[in-house]
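USER: Write out one fold?

ASSISTANT:
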Amino acid sequence: DGKEDEEDAKKELAEDLIAIVTSFAARIYGQRSKEHDSNTG
């Protein structure tokens, strides 16, 4: 019964993906907000 192991693997993969996307989005958002601040000033 390797179904539970597969579920755990999928969950881990999903969490890794979320972490990568989150850090990636945060980096882009950070760069954007910096540019926006300089433009408004």
Observations:
- The chain has a mean pLDDT of 87.
- The first helix runs from residue 3 to 40.
- The CA atoms of residues 26 and 32 lie 10 Å apart.
